[in-house]
Amino acid sequence: MTNVANSTPDMQGKVCLVTGATSGIGEVTAAALAARGAQVIVVGRNQQKAEYTVQQIQSETGSDSVHFLLA
C-alpha cells in the first residue's frame, strides 16, 4: 500500500489557497502543503482562528510562507 504522505510531490514555488483551513481536514492539508514548500493561504471566517492556525503551521513546519485571508 502506498503512503500518500510520502508520495506527495515537492510543492516549492506553488501557491495553494486552502478553504476551511482553520480546523479539521483543511488545517491538516494546509500544514502538509506548507511542509512540502508551498506558499499557503489559509482561508477562514474567524480572524482569531486564522491567525492561530497560521502561527501553528509556521511553528510546526518552519515555513514563513503561510498567510491568512478572511472570507
Helix coverage percent of residues?
40-55%
Helical stretch tally: 3
CATH class: Alpha Beta
Any idea what the radius of gyration is? Answer: 12 Å
Describe this structure in words.
This protein is of the alpha/beta class. It has one domain (12-70): Rossmann fold, CATH 3.40.50.720. Helices cover 44% and strands 23% of the residues. The chain contains 3 helices and 3 strands. The chain has helices spanning 4-7, 24-35, 47-61, and strands at residues 15-19, 39-44, 66-70. It has a 3-stranded parallel β-sheet with strand order 1-2-3, with helices on one face. It is globular, with a radius of gyration of 12 Å. The protein starts with a helix and ends with a strand.
Task: Give a quick summary of the entry.
The chain has a single domain (12-70), classed as 3-Layer(aba) Sandwich (Rossmann fold), CATH 3.40.50.
Question: Helices and strands in order, then pairings?
Answer:
Layout (H helix, E strand, L loop, with lengths): L3 H4 L7 E5 L4 H12 L3 E6 L2 H15 L4 E5 L1
Parallel strand pairs: 1-2, 2-3
Relevant terms:
single chain, 71 residues, alpha/beta, Rossmann fold, 3 helices, SDR_fam, NAD(P)-bd_dom_sf, Short-chain dehydrogenase/reductase SDR
